Amino acid sequence: MVLKKPVSLMLSGLILGSGFLAGGGASHADENGEFGTLGNDGELRVMNQNNQGPPSFVAGMLSERFEQANGQNAKRFLEQHKDVFEMDAPEQNLKEVRATEDELGMTHVRLQQTKDGVPVDRNELNVHFNENNEVTVVNGNYDSKLDEIKLDTTPRLAKNSAMEVAKDAVNAPDFIEFEKSDLIVYPFQDDYFLAYRVNLEFHSGAAGNWFIYVDAHSGDIIDRYDAMTGIGHFEEMLDTAPVTEEDPGAFQSQFTSGISPLSIDPDTLHQSRGKGIGTTGAQKNLNLGHGPGENGGQTFYLADQRSDEMDGIYTYNMQNTTNRMWLYENDNASWKNVVYDGDSSSWETVGQGPGVDAHKNSRIVYDYFKENHGRNSLDDNGMAIESRVHYATEFNNAFWSNGLAMMTYGDGDGQQFIPLAALDVTAHEMMHGITHYNGGLRYRFETGAVNEAFSDTFGSIIDDRSWHVGEDIMGEAWLEDGRFALRSSEDPGLFPVNQSFWAYSVDGEGRYPSHMEEFYFLPGNMDNGGVHINCTILQHSAYLVSEEYDMGRDVVADVWYRSYDYLHFDATFAEFREAILQSAIDLYGENSEEYDAFLGAFDDIGLYEGWDYDENFRDPLW
Ligand SMILES: [Zn+2]
């Protein structure tokens, strides 16, 4: 027994919040008062959106002191209160994902729901201990119905057969950069499936980062979506040809310096300083690597190895292809070592601008997170920061790739975009990497918009010249149209969304939303349910906190960054709200002006406690 005393079951807690009272299936605690019994002392804050199982968010003094704050005791706590949390056997059905202690001494435990040992897709539950090892918050998804139902969790379909089915379903090319298949339980449309969750990422042909759910008994496709995390979603606006693989035999590029791409061992490079000119003409100092080149000269690389505690910053030249494996088929060298090269420490020709920008901006973003959040690279474990520039031909996007663990930037077609490695875009893409290593936010519907909002918000925190996104990447046609940025956190309605989405706007005018009444209820096959559209509502609240409530960017950054601990893979807007408010309480206290600012900004954007997608759903206008 680790508890020093049994948990008090006094009826002293208060249940607060309209979301809790109004939400679907939210009345368990109201009926029997059981959540009230959890609070030893003071108030409970409860928010519920789950139709099956415990509330989405319960905060208060929930337990006595444990000897240790860890996954075992988190599960023990839930086991002791399994009736309250509507769980059959939490110690058996929850698997620890991680337990991390933060700078305030609090411990955050993430648990994965399982059924007969098989993980349940998307269902994660967090248990949080304060610095005294008392449980203060439980939040996330737990589906109680799964404890009761019978499900055959022995697959009849072999894993490699599921992989073939998945590849066929998305017309995957022969060369696939990343593939993974996991047996999971998939809750989908009020039913439960044993499924293989197949993740395929490829960049030849029509690039994609697909999640395909294959029924592990029948082999049927249950569901699929493309989780490629770009800066935007512009298919309808493109009049350029789709991205296609270059013919290796006809390789030509206007961007090469005349030196053949080399496969180098980064460890053999010497470090040197250099300078370059970015896409918009700005002069920049660069950290380069250099080594022996042709004809006794030196070759300089976009290779920055100046930080001992991390594995370096490398920028690669894709030379307008989407995959350069073919260059190395004969000598078996790794394409990852194809660092962008030049013949001097001066990177000042026009074609070198995207490399200069991506390389320099990666260093700026790395330094920002190290200095302000104590984070050592994207994974907080010193991983190398790798970027690819000159990707494909006239490619109007930039993206982070989970499978490759790197950023990629197109050159744009000059009309919509010019090369995309500007600072706010670089920060945006690197933030997708940070989101991924912090546990991920599903790139779909509300959660996907939360994911995008993190990226845009940190784009404007690190590139602090404005609260607009993409001012330095706009091409000629858009500038002539008066479109000077891609999105705005300051005034989202400044810009229209793609015309194909206008029917889903509240008034038919198709502006980016700044209030929950303007939320776009898009189907999953349109911008993954509006991930690049509804995000502006949330990032507008960040702008309001910083500028209208005058808290400044650092307060927004600290609270948003901390809120990852209170999110989970399938978090909704209402859960994001609770995560932000709890983070503000942790850092500044409930009676602080900072907390009031976040609360006020949520009111301003109409994101009230327990906001529910289904309850607010609105059909398209046409
Ligand atoms: Zn993005």
UniProtKB/TrEMBL annotation:
Domain Peptidase M4 C-terminal residues, every copy: 440-606
Main localization of the protein described in the UniProt heading: secreted
InterPro entries: FTP_domain, Peptidase_M4, Peptidase_M4/M1_CTD_sf, Peptidase_M4_C_domain, Peptidase_M4_domain, Zinc_Metalloprotease_M4
FTP domain: residues covered: 93-142
GO cellular component: extracellular region
GO molecular function: metal ion binding; metalloendopeptidase activity
Class of enzymatic activity (EC top level): hydrolase
Domain Peptidase M4: 275-435
UniProt-recorded name of the protein: Neutral metalloproteinase
Source species of the chain: Salipaludibacillus keqinensis
Lineage: Bacteria, Bacillati, Bacillota, Bacilli, Bacillales
